[in-house]
User: Fold these one by one.
Assistant:
Number 1:
Amino acid sequence: IKNEPIVLSTWDFGKEANAEAWTVLGKGGRALDAVEAGVKIPEADPNNQSVGYGGLPDRDGRVTLDACIMDEHYNCGSVMCLENIMHPISVARLVMEKTPHVVLVGDGALQFALANGFKKENLLTPESEKAWKEWLKTSKYEPIMNIENKLHKPSGGGAMPGGPDNHDTIGMIAMDAKGNFSGACTTSGMAFKMHGRVGDSPIIGAGLYVDNEVGAATSTGVGEEVIRIVGSHLVVELMRQGLPPGAACKKAVERIISRNPAKAKTLQVGFIALNKKGQYGGYALQKGFTYAVKTGKEEKLVPAKSIY
Ligand code: SD4
């Protein structure tokens, strides 16, 4: 069967990433290759202060990266707290394809990357270093979200400590012409986090889940809250039970609220999802979460519905 390929990704910068993914999907290529190629765009973009190169560092001034990838055969790979490597998603893919493991962390992940030809690079840009030094003056860790869209500046522009730029991750999910699904998720994590902190993004089931029988989901926002409910897996299971993607995302967001209503008001979490029919949707706790969609017929940014 020939399916209409489709790719979805988080935030405004998902648009450029989708365009790159399309260079694979549009030619009938594999969803796995598409999502890897797609998320490499923000990973290498120094103006994007929340993914890869140019990402905001942890509170010790170190840029530590989290990424995972999953294919149509339930294969998955992940790296956590990886430093000095421009494309953690490609290392995650190699963990999936070349090792008997799913996750490599920290120095082990770095050694594996270096042994496979990746180069050590400095990922802390002068802008991000400046933002960190600014943050050091108060050293207040406040993961408060982009309540307003206008506060959200995905393409650089002075991330405010604890402010709106504090968390953007690219999560990308795609279906190819064969009807196969894959997903990728990559981030420098919450700005000014404790050294060693890992969020939802590289955790299979939390930040990303792909089930070729059902569809795929990925998340962005305060990772701790997503991990608590194993968010992306929850969204996929809700779709398995028959909910459309948007409704499944909404239910996952409501689950976060039910766990701690007062806290949920102060932070952002967003999910996007795609099912076997090519239907898609997204939902967030707060206003201001957008996601990008591309098919052969359309290319757009969708402001996600939200609870608050
Ligand atoms: C994390 N979920 O490390 C990531 C951050 C994020 O938009 O999504 N930022 O918790």
Number 2:
Amino acid sequence: MKDVIILAIESSCDESACAIVKNGKEILSNVVATQIEVHEKFGGVLPEVASRLHVEKISAVIEEAVEKANMSVDDVDAIAYTRGPGLIGSLHVGVQAAKTLAWAYKKPLIPIHHIKAHIFANNLITDLKFPLISLVVSGGHSEIVYMKDADSYDILGQTQDDAIGEAYDKVARVLDLGYPGGPKIDNLAKGIEPQYTLPKPKTEGTYDLSFSGLKSGVLQFVDRMKRKGEEVEPAILAASFQDTALSEVMDKLMLAVDDYPVNQVLLAGGVAANSELRKRMEAAFANRKEEIVLPPLWCCTDNAAMVAVAGYFAYKQQAFGTFEQSAKPSLRV
Ligand code: KG4
Ligand code: ZN
């Protein structure tokens, strides 16, 4: 079969990214310009600043990706882009860039769902073996997804309130650790006993998740300790929060895996980079028949290579978009 080369653009949050990928597997280039240093100063992503920085960076990022792949946009088969979900202003920049390229070079456009792209990122390191279950844990999403094949997408369970990454970032802010909080809590909690008692989410008996009670539980705990004049030990609080959040995630994932026979269980999204989550996955599946896929850190966080892989699967289905489609911040699958 003829090679399929996809150029993809991602700009849903605070990374401006462009990648060129062959056959959904071989990365020819993968450029990510992160805005983290700017948002760090504010303790979180400022949407208005994010979109302005995307406007400044996107052309150079695309140019670099094309140069690194040592080709012309003429040589690619389609232009894939993240249509949503994400920040509206940020998404717009990537959508417009993709449309401009598709128009100028007469290429088909492929709109991609950001969360699907996180799942498809795993195809860069292994072959996806359907049916599969993916635990999607990021700054904007917490979902347990069942995929019978590459085109189907069933959300078995999802967060009823905040995303897990959001909770990590919030707790990190309470502890004054900086943004993004996930990796900071991950490091701080390493090897520490979770000794503080925090409220457990009340989602028993479903595959759904919840993190807002835990998030406010942390705030209340810190307040209570202050009022009593007692010191909060940041590392113990980080470990206690992480233990409660990850127990919730693992309990629900195992419930789903027991009910749905699958070949693979994949992690996806920024929180998949978490070292404790990866440890718990390995322990939970050590004696089970399902293969687990723990993507390397570079393919957990936002990038455009994952959008190109999802674009490749969509290309095979001829699932092309139109120039009338615009960014959709709350795009459903
Ligand atoms: O997927 P992603 O890059 O962006 C979204 O689509 O949301 O995920 C970003 C989230 C942030 O909340 C960040 O704190 C979290 O992933 N994160 C982590 C780790 N690395 C990134 N959370 C826990 N442990 C980590 N090591
Ligand atoms: Zn993401």
